[in-house]
Structures are given as C-alpha cells and as structure tokens.
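Thread: Newbie trying to understand structure tokens

Hi all, I'm a second-year student working on a class project, and my supervisor (Dr. K.) asked me to get a predicted structure for one chain before our next meeting. I've only ever worked with sequences, so writing a 3D structure as a token string is new to me. If someone could post the tokens and maybe explain what I'm looking at, I'd be very grateful. Here's the chain:
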Amino acid sequence: MNYLENIFENLRRTLERPVLGEVRLAASAAEPGDEITAVTCADLLAMVRRARNFLRKEGLSPGDRCALLAHNSIRWAAADLALMAEGIVVVPLYARQVAAELVELLEDSTPKLVLCGDAALRDGIAHAWSATADRPAAPPMVLLEEIFAADDAAIPDAPRERADDDAATIIYTSGTSGAAKGVVLNVANINHMIPCTVGRLDLLMGPRAAPDRVFQYLPFNFAGSWILLLTCLSRNAFLALSTDLTKLAAEMRRAEPHYFLNVPVLLERVRAGLEEQIAKRGGIVARIFRQARQAWFRREFGPAMLFDALWLALANALVFPAIRKKLFGPNLRALICGSAPLAKETQLFFGMLGVPVLQVYGLTETTAICTMDDPRAVEPGRVGPAIPGIEMKLGENDEIIVRGPNVFPGYWNRPEETARALRDGWFATGDQGEVNERGNWNVIGRVKNLIVLASGHNVPPEPIEEQLARAIAGAQHVVLVGHGRAHLAALVTGGVAQAAVEQALEKLNAELPHYRRVRAFRILPEVFTIENGLLTANGKLRRDAIAARWAAEIGAMFENAKRGVGSRESGVGGRA
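---
Reply by user tm_fold:
Sure, no problem. This is what the structure looks like when written as tokens:
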C-alpha cells in the first residue's frame, strides 16, 4: 500500500471524524465569535470525488501536470488529493509570489491546467502572461470553487495505481541565486518519508485515542509543510489552517495545538516580543522571569549560582505556565522548527518555558527531511540524527552529502544540474555541517555563501549574521559581505540606531578571532522583502541580488574603511 492508498484508507476508517479545519476569527466584538470551520473525513472524500470528476471531464490523464496556485485551505488539500489520486503531477505554487515569477514557473512546468484559489490570482497570472507578446498561449485556468461544483457519483474513493518511480509532484526551490528549479519527487520518496514522520510523532504523542491537534500557517507549496499535511492525513489528527497571518497569535491560541511547524524567524520574534513585554510590565513577575532566565542559561553556559534552583522553581510555579498557555493554548507538547538552523539560545529559551523545540533539517530535494530530533533526546543547537534508512556524511569543504530513498530523482528538464547535484548516488546538499559522536548534526551555513577573505581565511557568514541580528534592537536582517576583501563588513536593515550597531559589534568582535571581526557596517533604508526581489519565497536572503542592489554602498564602505574615514575599532558606520 503506497502513501496515498494509506491516506484514503485512513479517511474511510473514521468517516465522521473531523480531519481539516480553517480558523476564522471575528473581525470585531460585534460580529459572531471565533470558530474553526471543519470538515469530516467523509466530507473530504466527497470533495475529492467531485474534484476528480471535474479533472476527468477536463481531459486530464495520469502523467499530466497541473499547477495548484492558492493559499492554504481545505479546498487546497482536497484538490491536491484529487490530483494525486488521478495520477496527475501536482505543481504547487506560492500564492504570494510575484505574478511575473509565477509565469516563469508555469512556462517551465507547462501544466495542462492551472487551479487558482481566487479570481485575483487568476487575473494576475493572465495579465502577467499577456505582457510578453511572443509567449505561447497561457494554460487554461479555473477557480477551485468551480472544480468542487462537479458531480461525484461516478468516482470511486480508491486512487489509481501508481509505480514507485512515478512523479507525484514538482516543487520549485526558492532560488537564492539564479532561477528556481523544479524538484521532482516520486511515489517512492514519499512512501519512505511519511512512516518516518509518523514514527517521530508517535514518540512525541505516545499512546492515545484522541486525535492530535495540529496548527498550520506555512504554505503547502513548501515541501516540509506538504509533508506535514500528508502526515496528518495519514494518522489520527485534526489539522487547523491559518486564514489570516495578521492574526496568527490569536489563531494559534484558538487552534489549541499539540504541535505545529515553524520557521526560525517566527520563534525569534516570539522570543523577542515576549522578553520586551515582560520587561515593560516590570514588577515581581519581571524580576522572577529575569532571574530564572539567567539561572537557566547558566545551567548551559555556567557558572551556576546559589539561588538558581529557587528562581527556576518560582518561575515554573508562577510565571512559565501562564506564558505557555497565553502563547500556545493549553495542549502544546512541542514546537517543530525547520527551513533554517535555529539559534541555540532560542531553542534553550523555549525549553526554559517548558516547550521543547524539535528541529528538522532537509531540503526539497530530500523530500523535505534528512534529520529529525528524537523527542526523547533533544540536543539544543543541533538538528538531530539522520532519519531511518538514509546515509549522511561530509564531503569536500565539510559539505553534507546524503544517500537514500528520500533523495529526489532529478530536476525537471535540467539534466545538467541534476548531474551536478547527484554524484555517484549521493546528493550534494550545498550545506556545510558537522556531526558529533551521538550522531546529531549541526548545519553551519551554505557552501556557496562562504566568504573567502583576501587573507585566505574562510568565513561562513550565517552564524555571525544570526548573532548580530539578535544583538541589534530592531534589526530585521544582517548580511555579511567581504568576499576577496581584507575584512568583513555588514549591511543592516530595520529601524536601528547607529550606536546600537556599534555596541553590538564591539561586544561580538571581542569574542571572535581577528579574521572574523566585522570592521564596517552600513544601515540600509530599504528592508528586504519578497516583493522587492531581495528575499526568496520562503524568506531566505537573495545574496547576489542584495550585493547588486547595494554595490555602490558596499564599495564606498570598504573604501572608507581602507582610508580610515570615520573608523572605529568596531567598524565604520553610516546610513545609505
């Protein structure tokens, strides 16, 4: 039984069980209260049958490609199941991506049909497509609401038979440099991955009859989010979907999850916001929190002090339980975090609150996952051991390379890039890493981001960038530059003061070897966003684009530093 057959069997087994929901919060006190609009397994199967009937009437056949462009919703999940059940290759696209970029992905994947979540998305694609005269005709586009209006009487629940090497999806990578690539994942990849994720969640939740409560705000077009969706559909779980990211905190509390998937930037913001709120509140609560936090971190970094146990006991009795309930509701067992390494200090911070953070590491090319924390033995600052059935080791420049049934068969229509990525059966991840004697991995940074100074020293920028971003109040992004230069410099965005940057650099530089010290900086007036092309669809830095946009400022910064203009030990300041 493959992963999809297992999902359909799981849905048929408990027809009246609620399986998916959308969190809907009242816009004001005058409107009806907050609620979660839910569907049962029977409802979801009926939606899938209607969608499959529509797809057949449109003439789609196994092996055809169909793009799915929509925000997360119950309809998205039902359409995805219907497409896979018909043997159609799903091409999920990011609804927040710029229309011109979406058109490029559609031209590359050549889908037979595009399913759009709403008219605005459809019209945006149509307008961007028509902007180039010599482009071939756009593929047909229909709204999700249209496909669920079809009759479902003639469609069985069972999915079509699939071979292990049949493509299930083409997921486009975010493209930090160059064009995005379509990652083909096949049935065998997913067949291996879902039991691995189910097994880890079984360890977290233990034996229980009640369904897992799961919350989801990350888009389903990202591989990790999609694997979580399939995992929830494969087990006794209820998945509540965010519908308004501006109300994320309130949605989270309403969903009352046992666990949910996160990206590091959100957890960093939650931590910073909580610490700021408690500091402003003052009083005995703020003092207990501050003393307990210091005691907790001394346990990790030392040295311990006489009353540490007392302060932690007071916080665990009077402060931390209230914080957990206010932030996450009453049920939370753990936070799951992926897409980038999480700062060790942030992982320890949530552990202090009684909220374990389980890290996951992987790429789209590895069916989203290579390592997962074991809930019974989490090592803060590391991303856990390799999942069962795969091999991981270090190659040249300490690059992590992976071999196993989770590794993709290749990029869509890019044989040369496939050959570069897959070498003798091993996938070159492009990530620098290290592994300890316990088998737990640490991801240091991207090999291609390595800064080689004129002195010959190699500096991975990510750890220093993360430390500075945490240390500078109001900083949104910090980007290190200096490839081929005599020293490092930093670009800083956000509402930050020059004195704050200087202070953070002075403190950090004192702890670093000479070649890793940041000796100049520039505060930029423009933040990095997806819309201005300086961040990828999942929020990663487009370093080449940033370097090109601010080339003059970067050059001037190094020239001033060379001449000693406005220099200090901590660096050259200034705003662009």
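A couple of things are worth pointing out once you decode it. Confidence is low (pLDDT under 50) at residues 565-571. The chain is about 40% helix and 20% strand. Feel free to ask follow-ups in this thread.
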